[in-house]
Write a structure and sequence with these properties.
The protein has 274 residues and is of the alpha+beta class. It has a domain at 111-161: Double Stranded RNA Binding Domain. It is built from ten helices and 18 strands. Strand 5 and strand 6 (89-90) form a beta hairpin.
């Protein structure tokens, strides 16, 4: 009995030593214990502010190499995370996860104006502004107003940021070297992206992807109201207005409204005589 008790005591001590050994790397700044020397090194950058991983395209620095890899996708356009339901691609797994909810979760929040349904109540509130024409987000510099906060943030970059990379042909400036290189192809005529099905070439990879869908017949954008599919998200949005009866473009001369901007412009010529 005594021997068993001694054995359990020894085993308990060994477990305690293992635990101590496992967390033997302690931060001198905040006292946090880490499992390895490498983990401690990574953690210390929180206190020192060290960011050893720098983007070669725009100069932005990061504490972790994984964060740099994720950031580089902004420049390369790489979207390695693809939805198995509709084919849409994303730069990181968290965005894909949020997108997957559109396939798996029921849309409980319904618009009482057009019948469109939404996953989250905040999405419905944002959508309702298309009916009320409310634009609560205003630019403090020029006074332009927006229905969405992210639209205002993107707009304010026009005022806040000055491009560091200048085109020597037309003196236009860009925020990143990648954007400058893409722009320069307008002047050089360079089209490095060749279609794998025909001889057509493109200056941008995104234009090539859109073109190749003509050959593959791929239509990744599906209408949530019917089974119709589209090659481009813009075409899907235009189509869905048939179901929602949404007509966001209003004539400034009369009360007529239109689903598409070109239809409004064509109509307004009746009033202007152009």
């Amino acid at each position: 009995m005594e021997e068993t008790h001694r054995h359990e005591k020894t085993r308990g001590k060994n477990k305690s030593l293992k635990r101590k050994k496992k967390n033997k790397f302690t931060c001198t700044q905040c006292g946090k214990s880490l499992a390895s020397k490498q983990s401690l090194g990574h953690h210390m950058r929180v206190h020192t502010g060290e960011k050893p991983f720098t983007c070669s395209q725009c100069g932005k620095s990061f504490r972790e190499s994984a964060k740099l890899i994720k950031h580089m996708r902004i420049h390369t356009g790489e979207k390695p995370f693809t939805c198995s339901q509709c084919g849409m691609s994303f730069t990181d797994s968290s965005n894909l996860g949020r997108h997957m909810l559109t396939h798996t979760r029921k849309k409980k929040h319904r618009c009482d104006q057009c019948g469109k349904t939404f996953l989250i109540e905040s999405y419905l509130k944002r959508h309702l502004r298309t009916h009320t024409k409310e634009k609560p987000y205003s630019c403090t510099v020029c006074g332009n107003s927006f229905t969405r906060q992210d639209s205002l943030i993107n707009h304010q970059k026009i005022h806040a940021l000055v491009g560091e990379y200048m085109c020597f042909e037309c003196e236009k400036t860009f925020r990143t070297a990648v954007h400058l290189r893409t722009h320069a192809r307008i002047h050089t005529g360079e089209k490095p992206y060749k279609c794998s099905y025909c001889d057509k070439r493109f200056s941008q990879s995104s234009h090539l992807k859109k073109h190749e869908m003509i050959h593959t017949g791929e239509k990744p954008y599906t209408c949530s109201h019917c089974d119709k599919r589209f090659r481009r998200s813009g075409h899907l949005k235009t189509h869905e207005k048939i179901h929602t009866r949404e007509k966001p473009y209003k004539c400034s001369h009369c009360d007529m409204q239109f689903r598409q901007l070109p239809h409004l412009k064509k109509h307004e010529r009746i009033h202007t005589g152009e």
